[in-house]
Design a protein that fits this description.
Blueprint: H1 7-22, H2 25-34, H3 41-50, H4 68-80, H5 88-101, H6 104-116, E1 121-124, H7 126-130, E2 136-140, E3 143-151, E4 158-162, E5 168-172, E6 178-183, E7 192-201, E8 203-205, H8 211-247, E9 249-250, E10 253-254, H9 259-288, H10 290-318, H11 330-342, H12 347-357
Parallel strand pairs: 1-4
Antiparallel strand pairs: 2-3, 3-7, 4-5, 5-8, 6-7, 9-10
Helix pairs in contact: 1-3, 1-4, 4-8, 4-9, 5-6, 5-8, 8-9, 8-10, 8-11, 9-10, 10-11, 10-12
Length: about 350
């Protein structure tokens, strides 16, 4: 039994780290933010060349054919480098929806485009995890009406949309009657938005016997991916805090020699490290332990969200006043962790979901 990553998985993370490091991830995130970009085509092209955009897509459709644990490992690296590129929606959830609920024709049309990076897919699932007032999508006669909020990978060519009854639909970004509005959030590295449907033509994903079960699986997978992204972002903040503490001097001593600062750094590392095995196990369970997948996804998302928030706060405190400046740029990781915490359910809502799954709550 293996309790660590395989050599191939380590190589996957290393190659992606080299690419993102060479491309200057923080500098690219700054430019992305300043120009209010939607996709960062140069980063997307590099990810496509590495096979990231087609990571879980079968080889017969132009993908790499890896698993969801591998996708979680990629999400961790992307979070570590605050990468301004679509992944969770376009490269994980949308392909999964097509693979599990799409027809052979739908798969033949869209999977190769997604694998090559020629198309980006957004995913509207938020209402399936907790609908806001006046939100939700209804389907009738091959058309959609209603409102979907916090769409993942919003700047897209096509959308996978969940309706109130648990059905899934494909909607072209330029469909007549569809209004798209980008929503302002604290994280400027990954656009999210709102879709308003006014009797919009949609293509049902109807190949699955139980599309509601597919929606549930997409939510579980998305939660694991967001937890992995938070894990990577929090790891980066700890490393930056430790490096700063070694360099910053007070009273002619590096602040890393002060016991209080040592304790802050040690407590961050001690809190975050168990999240790594929790996220890895949740990624493994998605495909290998289906009976445990939903509960472990909930635990990974809820716990990593709370630990990540605490790490973000403490790492900023280690930097003192510099931690709040754009010069250091810690706020990019801080805000990314904040958005990850709320997407597809905050810790309180996700723990309530886990309680229901285990019959501990009505």
């Amino acid at each position: 039994m293996e309790f660590g990553l395989s050599q191939e998985q380590t190589m996957l993370q290393d190659s992606l780290t080299r690419f993102l490091g060479d491309s200057g991830s923080l500098a690219r995130a700054r430019v992305f933010n300043a120009n209010n970009e939607g996709r960062a085509p140069d980063v997307l092209a590099g990810l496509a060349e590495l096979g990231v955009t087609g990571l879980i897509i079968p080889e017969e459709h132009g993908g790499v054919g890896l698993g969801l644990l591998d996708a979680a490992l990629v999400s961790e690296v992307l979070g570590r480098h605050v990468t301004p590129a679509p992944f969770i929606g376009s490269s994980v959830l949308a392909p999964l929806a097509l693979m599990r609920a799409g027809s052979a024709g739908q798969q033949a049309v869209w999977l190769p485009k997604l694998a090559s990076g020629a198309a980006v897919a957004g995913v509207a699932l938020s209402e399936a995890t907790g609908a806001r007032e006046n939100a939700g999508v209804t389907a009738s006669g091959g058309r959609l009406s209603g409102r979907a909020l916090f769409v993942i990978d919003f700047e897209a060519d096509v959308y996978v949309v969940a309706d109130k009854a648990g059905g899934l639909h494909l909607v072209a970004a330029d469909a007549k009657g569809l209004t798209r509005t980008r929503l302002p959030t604290i994280d400027t590295t990954r656009p999210v938005g709102e879709l308003n449907f006014d009797n919009v033509e949609a293509e049902p994903l109807a190949a699955a016997a139980d599309s509601a079960a597919v929606v549930r699986f997409l939510i579980d997978t998305g939660r694991v991916m967001y937890a992995a992204d938070t894990l990577g972002a929090a790891s980066a903040m700890i490393d930056q805090a430790v490096a700063y503490a070694k360099e910053r001097k007070q009273f002619e001593r590096a602040i890393a020699t002060f016991q209080a600062v040592k304790h802050m750094c040690a407590e961050m590392a001690a809190a975050l490290e168990p999240c790594r095995s929790l996220v890895w196990y949740a990624g493994h369970a998605l495909e290998s332990l289906p009976a445990e997948a939903s509960v472990t996804a909930c635990h990974a998302k809820a716990h990593t969200s709370e630990v990540g928030t605490r790490v973000a706060k403490t790492a900023t405190e280690v930097h003192g006043g510099m931690g709040f400046t754009d010069l250091v740029g810690l706020h990019y990781w801080f805000k990314r962790i904040g958005l990850n915490r709320q997407m597809l359910g905050g810790p309180e809502a996700v723990r309530e979901d886990a309680a229901r799954l285990q019959a501990l709550a009505a």
